[in-house]
Amino acid sequence: MANATVSMSKELYQIIETLEKPEVRDSLQRLLEKLPNVEQTIESAENVVGFGKAVLTDDKTIDRYEQFVSTYNVGSETITAIVQLMEKLPKLVQIIHQLENIIDFGAAVLQDKQTTEYTMNNLKSYTDSYVEKGKTGMDFFRMVQQRAEEKPQHINVFSIIKWTKDPSVQKTLNYVQSALDILKEKN
Question: What is the DSSP letter of 145?
Fold first, then answer.
């Protein structure tokens, strides 16, 4: 009996020595703090298992499930398609991650006032010349429209012949003829 007592005291001493280590004490303290969560998780798992058992023993639920499954045509083609889809899921996940990164980048750029101002200024420098040309064209069109309404003229064949001698009319007619030739070649 004395040997048993000595053996127990050695084991007890080893246990106490192990418990005195700071990393063991910290681990035990964290474990004790998490015990309520572990208990709740175990209870939740028990509830899920109990629910599963109740569902599997309920004849009405099993009948509904069988009717539900029997209405769908789940054949070998469907299963093959599901397997192929599952094989492609890693690639789809990568693409989705890339899209998320692009969206996050776009959102960050749009939220950064300095970047948006810089981008808008650069776009404006490119589009200003086109906007000016558009304004000039609209001004020209308005002037032509105003003059045509203010001074209506009688146009005859001789005035049209006179116009065709004008170099700007000749250039315009040349463009029209070239466009017609190209359309004819395409058809």
Answer: H
Q: How many C-beta atoms surround the C-beta of residue 132 within 10 A? A: 10
Q: Where are the alpha helices (DSSP H) in the chain?
A: 2-19, 22-57, 59-71, 76-111, 113-150, 157-164, 167-186
CA distances from 105 to 3, 109, 115, 121, 130 (A): 73, 6, 12, 20, 30
Q: Which two tokens stand for residue 156?
A: 């005859």
**Span 74-112, pLDDT tens digits:** 678 888 888 898 999 889 999 999 999 999 998 888 888
Model pLDDT for residues 31-76, shown as the tens digit of each residue: 888 888 888 888 888 888 888 888 878 888 888 877 877 777 767 8
Angle between helices 59-71 and 22-57 in degrees, nearest 10: 80
Contact 53, 47 (CB under 8 A): no
Residue 66's alpha-carbon distances to 10, 72, 73, in angstroms, are 63, 10, 13
